[in-house]
Design brief:
elongated; 130 residues
C-alpha cells in the first residue's frame, strides 16, 4: 500500500509543474488552432484510459511483476493526467471556466486514481508480496 501512495504522490508532483507549462504553451498557440488541438487530445486520451483500466494487479506472481505493474500503471496514469491537463487548459482558454467540463475531468481523474487503489486492494495475494 505504501508503494501505491508513493507512486501517486510522485505522479501528482510531476503533474503540478506540467499544468503551468501547459498554460504557457497553449498561450503561444494561435487561438484558431485550439479546436484542432482539442480534437486530437480528446481522441488520443482514449488509448491510455483504456489501457489503464485493462491493467490489473490480479495476475502478479512475484515482486518483479509487481514492480513492472507499478511502472506500467504509473506511465499510463501520467499520460492520462497530462492529457487531462491539456484538455482543461484548452477548454479554459476556449470557453472560459465551465464548471461541468472541469468537474467532469476532475471526477474522471479521481476514478483513474481510485481504480489503481481499488484494484490493488481487491487482490489478497498482493498483501503477501508487498
Amino acid at each position: 500500500m505504501r508503494s501505491l501512495i508513493f507512486k501517486n504522490i510522485i505522479l501528482h508532483l510531476l503533474l503540478i509543474p506540467f499544468y503551468f507549462y501547459t498554460l504557457k504553451e497553449v498561450a503561444l498557440i494561435s487561438p484558431d488552432k485550439w479546436d484542432t488541438l482539442l480534437l486530437f487530445v480528446g481522441l488520443i486520451v482514449i488509448a491510455p484510459i483504456t489501457s489503464n483500466f485493462i491493467y490489473t494487479y490480479k495476475g502478479i506472481r512475484n515482486r518483479l511483476w509487481f514492480f513492472m505493474w507499478h511502472i506500467t500503471t504509473f506511465l499510463s496514469m501520467l499520460v492520462i493526467g497530462m492529457l487531462f491537463i491539456t484538455l482543461d487548459v484548452l477548454l479554459l482558454a476556449m470557453v472560459w471556466n465551465v464548471l461541468i467540463f472541469r468537474l467532469s475531468l476532475f471526477l474522471f481523474w479521481l476514478a483513474v486514481v481510485s481504480y489503481d487503489f481499488a484494484d490493488f486492494l481487491a487482490d489478497e495475494k498482493l498483501k503477501k508480496l508487498h
